[in-house]
Amino acid sequence: MSPRCPRVPAGMAAAGGLLCGASGLALLVAATATHFWVQRRAAGGTASLGLWHGCLGGQCHPHATTPALLEAARVLMLLSVVAAAAGLALGLSVGTGGGRRARGRVAGATLLLAGAWGHRGHGGHGGHEGHGDCPQGWAGTGGAGGKWGRTAEC
Questions:
Q1: Where are the domains of the chain?
Q2: d(Cα 148, Cα 49) in Å, to the nearest integer?
Q3: Which residues of 76-104 are buried (b: 16+ CB within 10 A; e: fewer)?
Q4: Which parts pass through the membrane (predicted)?
Q5: What pTM did the predictor assign?
């Protein structure tokens, strides 16, 4: 006789999935809202760049221009947050009423879709352009009044 693995109760598996979904949603919201996507030491202190604004020496300013890649990252991250919230809501509703399996599968698929969008949105911002070591969309610390834009210093 071969040994069998003990079965995990359905409630425990659902609770584990909901815990992963809730923590994923919290991390997606934090990643979308903060300005710590790219950090670098600069002459005026630490400089950081996010989806919505950039900070230098403790002062944060909205982006002067928004390239298409930054807009795409914003859209994908926002879609990811919405899909994760919908998947979590579907996962919480699995315990009520009929159609448990169907709702559970749709919730899982929605959470996977949210993860894929978040991964793609995060990968599309802050990459290298191929020249020097200046990340895409990164602002130099000098130039025209310290504006957030590409400068020759990168």
A1: 67-126
A2: 9
A3: bbebbbebbbbbbebbeebeeeeeeeebb
A4: 12-38, 75-95
A5: 0.67
Q: Where are the alpha helices (DSSP H) in 34-99?
A: 68-93
Distance (Å, rounded) from C-alpha 13 to C-alpha 116? 22
In sequence order, which residues have a C-beta less than 8 Å from that of residue 142 and are 6 or more positions away?
43, 151, 153
pLDDT at residue 138 above 50?
A: no
- Burial bucket for residue 138 (CB in 10 Å: 0-12, 13-18, 19+): buried
d(C-alpha 101, C-alpha 130), whole Å: 47
Query: Tell me, what DSSP letter sits at residue 89?
Result: H
Nearest CA-CA partner of 17 in 86, 83, 87, 98: 87
CB neighbours of residue 66 within 10 Å: 13
Q: How far is CA 7 from the centre of its chain?
A: 34
Q: Over range 89-110, report the average pLDDT.
A: 81
Collapse the DSSP code of 14 into the 3-class scheme (helix H, G, I; strand E, B; otherwise coil) and give the result: helix
